Amino acid sequence: MPKIRPRVNTEELRRKDLISAAIQTIGERGSLDVTVAQIARKAGVSAALAHHYFGGKDQLLLATMRHLLSELGSDLRLALQTAATPRARVSAIIGVNFSASQFAHETIAAWLTFYAHAQQSLEMRRLLRVYARRLHSNLCFALEQLTDKQTAQHIAKGTGALIDGLYIRHALGADAPEAPKAIALVEDYITVQLARLPLNPSRNRH
Q: Quick one: average pLDDT of 46-62?
């Protein structure tokens, strides 16, 4: 009996190709001053087909942002599955943000460009707030098991700012550390903060 092959969703594949091409094109140019035609060319499809799938440049860019957020969320869920302690959860969150897929040059450049464009786009600003809230919430959930709520909030805010700052430095090429050193910097910050601020003795610190 012949083996049944899974049906390939051509439209879904084309959408993924266009989103990947958008990340690469934006990363190469360092701005959103790109056209649907340029992105389509990078993906190996026609501009007409790209418009058919997304309706226009703004919709394609928003889909690209949603894809980046979705990929980050998926990577984090996978990493947290093996995090056995609250401190390990914190390390998992940090590690995912500086993983090979997330800390790739074109991905960082795309994020920096989206941050800049969010000043004019309410929808992009909303998506960036979603990212910031998720990062803060995930960090707080783990940190509150290591210290009191106020301290956890304080450390989470500093950690988020440090991660964003390292992304910006890397995008600008301003003597930015590579992923392992970036992770070490953030880990050191958290270790120092946990050591110097009041801890909740009723929580598990490990």
A: 89
CA distance 55 to 48: 9
Q: Alpha helices, DSSP H only, in 98-148?
A: 105-117, 122-143
Tokens 């998506």, residue located:
127
Number of structural domains found in the chain: 1
Collect all residues with Cβ–Cβ distance below 8 Å to 101 and sequence separation of at least 6.
71, 75, 107
Q: Whole-model pTM?
A: 0.82
Is position 175 within any domain?
yes
- Chain position carrying tokens 């993983």: 99
In a domain, 46, yes or no: no
Q: Is the pLDDT reported for residue 193 higher than 90? A: yes
Question: 10 Å Cβ neighbour count for 22?
Answer: 29
Give Cα separations from 139 to 64, 70, 117 (angstroms). Answer: 25, 18, 27
In angstroms, the Cα distances linking 163 to 66, 93, 199 are 20, 11, 24
